[in-house]
Amino acid sequence: MSKFYLGIIFILISAVCYGLLPIFALLAYKTNINFITLLFWRFALAAVCLATCAKIRIKEWNISTYQLLVFFVLGSILYTLQTIFYLSAIKIISPTQAIAIVYIYPILVALLSVILKEEKMTATTLISLAISLIGVFIVLKANFGNLNYTGILLALGAALTCSIYMVAGRKYTAQFPPLITTTFVVFFAAVSFFIMGITTHSLGLPPSSAAWFYIMAIAIISTVIAILAFFAGLQIIGATKAAILSTVEPLITMGSAALFLGNAISSMQIIGTLLIIASACLIAIKKEQPPTPNRPDELSSS
Fold it and tell me: Which of 158, 160, 181, 161 is nearest to 169 (CA)?
């Protein structure tokens, strides 16, 4: 097998792992684990694994106080908010609706770059925006009589915070290996959920072995493996091809929701999701971008 095809496999593995995140989260909620406990243990376990990998691969870190502050803002504020918005949204609206809305983030990244005068507004950006909005409208219209606007706003909040995180991360962490940035971001996210849990008295141990299973699945599969596979593929095939291949994530989430949760999939949802993917591909093709510090959950895929 050539190295190029190996890179493609890595990116597809990453997309599958990220796409499974909302499925694992919804199954975890059924064990009666609370939101804060789930996310603290997810990020704490992932941080330990990523720090171990980073220590093995990168001998000297050389992090200044200013750079540590940047990681703190990215992890404790932006990444934490994105995760809260996304995993709260899937409790209210279907994973298919949530991931479709969140996946407008490439368009928002492009628009933020225009606002910050890092890029110029182009016809490609405008066309991508139009296609993305049409796709979201079609996905939502498939359930138009049963829309939950709170869930939609939470998903939009996840897309917006993800976009800010991407732009800020690209600007302030470009000099660091992505694995170092990701390790610190995940660590500070764990710190945030620990503080929230302590102050609200909502942090504890998972209530059952099933809860532990889903936490481990989220931490190892949908965080550690997803991140490491993405960066492994990124180094081989480049940012543009990686970004395009990663757009299969919404389809993974949609198919997994149908398979494991029994969610029905309509032709309208498929068409709308494909339009959103097409808009993300247009943005990715437009210009080769420097690698960003992490994917949405993530989400994905926050």
Answer: 181
Residue 84 sits in which domain range?
Answer: 3-286
Residue 167: closest CA among 82, 253, 273, 51: 82
The 10s digit of each residue's pLDDT in 58-73 is 877 888 899 999 999 9
More confident of the two residues 249 and 37: 37
Number of structural domains the chain divides into: 1
Quick check: is 94 in a domain?
Answer: yes
Residue 291 lies in a domain: no
For the entire predicted model, the pTM comes to 0.86
Task: Flag whether 135 is in a domain.
Answer: yes
In a domain, 219, yes or no: yes
Q: Residue 164: CB partners within 8 Å, gap ≥ 6?
A: 78, 112
Query: Distance between CA 72 and CA 189 in Å, rounded?
Result: 8
State the Cα–Cα distance between residues 223 and 119, nearest whole angstrom: 31
Q: For 184-195, write each residue's pLDDT tens digit.
A: 999 999 999 999
Would you say the C-alpha torsion 148, 152, 153, 155 has a positive or negative sign? positive
**Residues 6 or more apart in contact with residue 56 via CB below 8 angstroms:** none
